[in-house]
Design a protein that fits this description.
Number of strands: 9
Largest sheet: 4 strands, mixed
Strand order of the largest sheet: 6-3-8-7
CATH class: Alpha Beta
CATH superfamily: Nucleoside Triphosphate Pyrophosphohydrolase
Radius of gyration: 15 Å
Strand content: 35-45%
Structural class: alpha+beta
Distance between the termini: 45 Å
Length: 172
């Protein structure tokens, strides 16, 4: 059965559902999403290199996990389901902010998401799922942000936007 994402208005109020790929065809429809940033106790952030097999934004570095809650699923259920599915572990997570963004890709697909950003801490192994990511790495957040600013085309747009805000929050 095809996965259905939750369509929302600019205030994140549900307005319907749409088959996942159809929601991403240009012009992409605004839908609920989430991005998870995982830090270890050394202060490093976990990055994944999106699988080149992904329909869009494949081969780019991004945050530990990003996806969509499915129709009938809460954000809380979805973040833990996908963190386990993509990274092979679960962690305590807390939502820190949300934002809306839009990005088009060269293959007729794009993103138009109301993105809920979660952070968590984890120190164990990262088994990862090779269907989701081609590589994983831990890095110093300030180095990641510097590289994102210098080479934004190597990263997903949403991870760059969220990382800027996360780093600003960490300075406070």
């Amino acid at each position: 059965m095809a996965e259905r994402v939750i369509l929302v208005d600019e205030h994140d109020r549900e307005v319907g559902t749409e088959e996942k790929m159809a929601a991403h065809r240009l012009p992409a429809k605004l839908h609920r999403a989430f991005s998870i940033f995982i830090f270890n106790t050394r202060g490093e952030v976990l990055l994944q290199l999106r699988s080149v097999k992904k329909h869009h934004f494949g081969g780019l570095w991004t945050n530990a996990c990003c996806s969509h809650p499915l129709a009938g699923e809460t954000l809380e259920q979805a973040v833990h389901r996908k963190l386990l599915q993509e990274c092979g572990f679960d962690a305590e997570l807390r939502e820190v902010f949300s934002f809306t963004y839009k990005a088009d890709w060269t293959n007729g697909l794009g993103e138009h998401e109301f993105d809920h950003v979660f952070v968590g801490t984890y120190d164990g192994p990262v088994p990862g799922n090779p269907e989701e990511a081609d590589d994983w790495k831990w890095a110093k957040p300030e180095d990641v942000l510097r590289d994102m600013r210098a080479h934004p085309d190597n990263y997903t747009l949403w991870s760059c936007m969220a990382m800027e805000r996360i780093m600003a929050m960490r300075k406070r």
